[in-house]
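User: Teach me something about this protein's shape.
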Amino acid sequence: MANVLNNLWGGGKPAPSPATVQAADSDFGDFAKGADPTPIDVSPVTHTLAGLGPAQTLRPYTKWYNVHERHSLDEFKVEGLILAVITVVLLVHVIGARLNRTKANKWIRAHSPVLVDEFASVGFAGVSPLSADKSGDELLQALTDDNTQLGDAALREKSLFEFATYATGRANVAFLDVKLTLLKRYNPVMTLIEQGLGFFFDTFEQPQDVVEAILYPFDGKEALTVPGIPGAAELRAKENKSSFDNFVWGLVHKESMKKVRDERYDVSLTFTKDNSKLPTWLTVMSESAEITDLMLTPELVKAAEAAGDLFEYLIVSDQPLVKPKT
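Assistant: First, the predicted structure itself:
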């Protein structure tokens, strides 16, 4: 009974010491006293838009005209390549056009003496006012001097590959048209394409330097072409008429014979026959043997042989190039 009362009133057992309490509750020993706070090192991080790459340092400020400090040549590689290609294209264009002009000028210089000797007026300049006031032999001499002084100006440039000249002032001849068609040397890519198409397909003609001369006779129609001069009709004798019997005759290179027949209707009316006076690579296209005996002179044969493969055809015709529809 006494022990019960002692327990109720707090007597009997002594109070437990702090060491005993700590030993009894050893699982919470780490939290008996709070840890001393220590500072945490935080390194500043700069976030970029990508979120993954390293932060870029800002370039120092420079003047607006110091472009070399803000940019480098490596940034303009594509632009440099484009400029290089444009430069090459321009150089090829200029050099090719100059080559064509040089070839055309060489041709007119070589043939100008012949044209001046055979025609009273060469080129597109016409008769100068000083020469127009003269007559007779003085007029002929003045026209010859004008044609000689004309030089390269007798040739007119129609395009970078087409050139033309003109001549008139010869008995029984209205005028002469000469056309030069050269390779497109200013555009080698197009020239190669045309060469390839002409090599693989017969329908495409391979481009080459060509001179085409067309002479138009009066054939008795001077009154319809040249203005009449008072008294000129009486001065012209009947036997000096420019009219002649119409016919079709041609001297053709055999390699060009098929092309000529396909392109010209008038030549298709003739028949082909070899001639003993001609080399094996030339043939005659004529309507009759009598015309061949008259036209095939030794001078013509010699000139054709001298031209060689450069000669394609010489055609005399009174028929149209295109077949009439009716």
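Now, about its shape. The longest strand covers residues 173-181. The CA atoms of residues 178 and 227 lie 24 Å apart. If you'd like, I can walk through any region in more detail.
User: That's plenty for now, thanks!
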